[in-house]
Amino acid sequence: MKRALLNTLIVATGYLASRLLGLARDVLISHQFGTSAELAAFRASFGILDLIYLVVAGGALGSAFIPVFSEALEQRRDAWRLASAVLNLTLLALTAACAVVWVFAAPLVALSVGRGLNEAERALTVDVLRLMLIQPFLLGVGGLAKATLESFNRFTLPAIGSNLYNLGIIGGALFGPWLGIYGLVWGVNIGAALFVLVQLPGLRSVGATYRIRDDRDEQRRKAGLVVSANTAAAYQSGRESDGARASPVSFLTPFYAEGVGRMLRLLGPRILGQSAWQVNMIAIVSLASTLGSAALAANAYALQLMLLPHGLIALSMATVLFPEMARQYAAGDRVTFRATALGGVRAVLFLALPASAILGVLALPVLRALFQRGAFDTASATLTTEALAAYALGLAGFAAAEVIVRAFFAMQDTRTPVIVGIAAVALNMSLGWSFLRVGLGLGGLGLAFSLSNLFEATLLLALLGRRLGGLERDFFRAIGAMILATMACAFALALLLRSSYAIAPFVAPGDTYRWPDDFLPLVVWLAGATAAGVLAYAGVTALFRVSELSAAVARGRRILTRAWFRFAPGDGG
To answer: How far is Cα 209 from Cα 235, in angstroms, rounded to an integer?
Structure first.
């Protein structure tokens, strides 16, 4: 149990560090590049790079590889031959995919992520894309190393590797004044290399070996040498024995091992789901590019900022709940599984709903505090605010879907989330295109994303409720109270924001913010406004006696009590 708690702490710490480094990375990038055409080319290329990585060697590969590899270890089969075969398949697929993208980079960019860019911007995007094609290759190998180490409950080096990747990009950004966008390009490649290299000592410590043949293959090979000698003698005498024909090692041998087929079957639905998500992201980038390179870059900032609370709230909670739900369902404990799944949805919504109100209403002050300096000017902040406010509307749905999808995975149902996810992607693309046609701009893209995620979460929740025998009245009462509390929070924040224009002009729209003079007052104002919004939310949830509030208060008290007893001076101090 202590080991499990330690591993959880390692993963949580690494994840938090990765998010904070990612935020620091974006702050530095915004200062160097703002919403320039250079940054737009850099951001656009990631749509294609991420598609290669996620489809060929992303998280789906790890989630399918770990159970099969762990089973091979438990049953004392040749697990390293399985790992070697999977590595060979991964390298083959990545090489093929990267080669195709290299050759057809120009038309791919023109038809997808760079559809709305001019010729010079497209050419830069193609150049950047080709230079960064080593990134999905390295991340694919590193991802397989990560999955292998996690099979042995080794989490430290993979966590360090993920943070080194961000540090590589930060290092590249520091060279921006001299290398321009190519500093970021080489920072990405160096960070991806560090992600792989830091895990090699861990692989060595668990006894990793690269193997193509297992012991039985070696025995057959030696036997084949004897047979081949007899066969040669037979040929010399003008005859060949039926049983003496040697079977050369097939060229498919490096790509096959016991367990590969099962892993590929597990991989199929997950790849389909991740492919749909990445196609969705490419479609968003493509539509944003039709509004110009500045809009494309601003859209990327908004998405990254929206994903910060999503990661801290939804991904972390879903990661913790998934193995617990899987054990409960496998044990046939449907009552406890139901309580865990629906309790997880409530807990995520309790945190994500006020976060969406704060991020949506205070989008401009938040962006100014984080990014508005250097090349990220008033125009950049205004454009990004338009997108962020709209994306924030869908944060709660996006977060809830993360937990609900894990509940289906725990029931060993990967098909339902994939089908619903594809429907949500289709809805997002059609709404995004329609909203742009009627002139809603970046806000329209964010609104389309939010509506499609709310649709996905609602439909998944309804389907999960059917599987669990229906949703109880108390569940709807709690969610309704949280929504009312969120509306109260948003109203309080909007009222405070509007009434502050006269005394705190740096929160008002327009060219009213001056870096660095207004930075500290803005941070103080944001802290006070956020506290006011949280109090409004807590007041309404307390009025409706939402149990998540009392649980959060009790947890906070325990943390404060432990901190007091740990750091308070002793009696004899």
So the answer is: 39
